[in-house]
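Handout, section 4.2: multi-component inputs.
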Amino acid sequence: MYSFEELALQFKEKFEVPHFPAHPASLYEPNNYFLTLGGKRIRPVLCLMGNELFEEINPDAFHVAAAIELFHNFTLIHDDIMDKAPLRRGMQTVHEKYGSSTALLAGDVMLVAAYDYLNKINNSYSRKIIHHFNKTAREVCEGQQLDMDFEKKDNVHLDEYLKMIELKTSVLLASSLKMGAILGGAGLGNQQLIYEFGKNLGIAFQVQDDYLDAFGDPEKFGKQKGGDIIANKKTFLLIHALEAGNSTQQSHLKELLNSNNPDKVEKVVRLFQETAVDKWAVDLKEKYMASAMQNLEDIAVISSRKQPLSTLANYLMTRAH
Amino acid sequence: MYSFEELALQFKEKFEVPHFPAHPASLYEPNNYFLTLGGKRIRPVLCLMGNELFEEINPDAFHVAAAIELFHNFTLIHDDIMDKAPLRRGMQTVHEKYGSSTALLAGDVMLVAAYDYLNKINNSYSRKIIHHFNKTAREVCEGQQLDMDFEKKDNVHLDEYLKMIELKTSVLLASSLKMGAILGGAGLGNQQLIYEFGKNLGIAFQVQDDYLDAFGDPEKFGKQKGGDIIANKKTFLLIHALEAGNSTQQSHLKELLNSNNPDKVEKVVRLFQETAVDKWAVDLKEKYMASAMQNLEDIAVISSRKQPLSTLANYLMTRAH
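Output:
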């Protein structure tokens, strides 16, 4: 059994090959640039871990992992266009560096490259894997669309937000694990459990991310404190505060959202505390984390095989960034 | 053997099913809207014809044809964003009607839907078909990127333009035929010939398209006369005129390109005639058409099977629009 770090290294070595032809450079250089920005490669490694939970790693797991990572990068390139984001991992985004049209096309060929990797895997499970990959791809697009829809909506309910986060973020983590499990020969019940584990872990992770924006130590977290608050971004905290606060707190919060008050972050954070949204978020995160750990517990393999995933889950939930 | 029209009708019937889930409507309604704009469905029908050239139609050919048509629509939605085109087939483009971000995502899920159809076909040839599909998808993106690169370039040589047209337009026609041929059990030599037939036909078609913009009867052609000239679009005619004209003609042409002269179209057309570009274009089209017909001739099946493709090629080359 390998740890996350060991598998991340194995994946990195296999993934450091050219994924694109040299010409035309105007199309493929942006792709290569974006891939060198790196990232923690969590999703492909989850695929390898999902495999190894059940069986020694199937060489095809590296193909599926590469497809997942290319797919994830495709979504990032396109999301950055939609969000007009200037930076990604501290570097210029593709559309900022090469223009929106090239970024659009670079994303498109990145997705095609993902399918090239899926086309390498063994026929005996390729149909099942591709079916699952496509379903996930559709869901991630749906999540991004809902996220954009919510920007224009005044009232977003918690259950709607949860569904959006599930689609935009969680299903790819869940699906990465599940595709690995399929390659590891897992039965349907175990496939479902590892999927739920990933989904619950993903939601817990997002709750934590939203929480840290308001309550994290900016130095450890590595991001501007209250970035979501400044951008009026809908988060677990904001949505719940708007539902749980009394009418005075609700109108105060709405007023702040529409203002350029220089103490906006401080005041919103104080309102989050007054409405006990901070404690609620910690509880919510722990609820999803507990569900995830229960899912892992329920998977019918000996517990020693679960160690790397359990370690990873705990690491992700105590991370400072 | 079926004619193009008969196969177009068969394809239409099979293709008129929901390709997308109902929710979220904000994502999928744009896709459904775009598909209802129709089009002649030339590419999917070429796939069916490529199949029937060799063998009775394999039911999987309809899956591949659907994938091709969805892929083609994906490229149109994304190209329209890049070209900032307000209209497509006389109707609002997706980005114009629903916004650029939604159009981007709608294109993305359209491509995923194409791969869903490819995932239905029989294992015995799925790897080969998907390999070919991916190669073509990459090439079409490369063609679009080169087209954008050329917009910013002063001097584009004929061979560069030809390569761009080949990638952007011809390879999908060629590949549609070839994938059909693979499903029809064609040997490698015949696969290559039908591919070359499609490629040459596609180039001939584009030469004709460029020619009709300047010399066609606008009433029959159904487009504004000289639309390409007004937009300073690089075409076979413009590129050759800039290479073949004497230095006076060349500078006159360059001057006109940078002007808002109200008689721009008329003057450029006259220059095309003075440099004999009109005759050159007709010859070029006929050269590619002759190559295409020779490719068809060389395919090792009895000539009666070639009739529908030969009729279609002649129809396309004498079309008024």
